[in-house]
Amino acid sequence: MTPKKPGHLLEIIDEDVQSVNAFATRLKKLSNSSKAKDASGDGNNQSKRRKLQDGEVNVEEKEPHHDIMEGISKEDFRQYHKAKDRVRNFYKEQHEMQTVAYNLQARVNYKTKTRAKMTIWEALCRLSKLIDDSDPDTELSQIDHAIQTAEAIRKDGKPRWMQLVGLVHDLGKILYFFDSEGQWDVVGDTFPIGCQFAKENIFHEFFEGNPDNSHPIYSTKYGMYEPKCGLNSILISWGHDEYMYYIAKSQSTLDEKALAMIRYHSFYPWHREGAYRYLMNEKDYQLLEVVQDFNKYDLYSKSTQKYDLNELEPYYKELIDEYFPNKYVEF
Ligand SMILES: [Fe+2]
Ligand SMILES: [Fe+2]
User: Fold this and answer.
1) 32 C-alpha to center of ligand 2: Å?
2) Does the pLDDT of residue 136 top 60, yes or no?
3) Which ligand is nearest to the CA of 295?
4) What are the Cα distances from residue 137, in Å, to 84, 89, 90, 252?
5) Which of 86, 166, 168, 205 falls between 20 and 30 A from 123, CA-CA?
């Protein structure tokens, strides 16, 4: 599975994978200078949560009041220190296995084949068999979570495109039934690959087992990236977010904001903990607000309430048709 020559693999990926193409140049540059580079340089980041700078968004202060938050205590969610063994075990494996080499190979795999062709609704139904091992907040199936999220957005009077994002944001988890290697390359919080793993990542200690953590370039603060290069230019750990982002980008009419919600919704160290600001460009600050707005519905709609799928099916099928012009989507 591990590619021996990532440079060669990059060449066979389509040009529309912009971020991957950008790596080809950077990897070449870095491989020339890697021996001279001091791995201990500015990568020695001791931050817990640093002060926000001008123009940055403070999640706690900026979060507007919405119905979704009524009667909800944030402390009831993402309590990883109380997490069950399945969650801890999941993150140990995920943090050790998500490497640059794996991520390049995963993107090659994605671009070079179609795993299935089906309607969005059929794909959602397949997810009814999946319970996410990384999630400490729900043991409901994924189709229930999709409907809960979409219904919460709908009840708050948000636009139809955002309701659709709620419905499909986790649809990439269907990857689990195709060619994933487990749940570690499908679910869980996401984080940049190819640069230092920020302390704000949950279960940060598990990165010690990741080979990139002692790599002379990848273990430094910026790793293979330039300061403020923009999130679109970095490799985010492979999983359902990236996978669904590529599907929605190429096969739906969803716009940039909607795509950002899909792509970054699991990037908790960034949108919730304030990490990785040094990789953001100006546009990313706008997208951050959008992703934070979406996150409320993704996270706080998790409850034991189950909706009647038969009742809601006609509404959501019509919504799907509005944004996915082709009935059958390539997964
Ligand atoms: Fe997700
Ligand atoms: Fe979700």
Assistant:
1) 41
2) yes
3) 2
4) 10, 16, 14, 30
5) 86
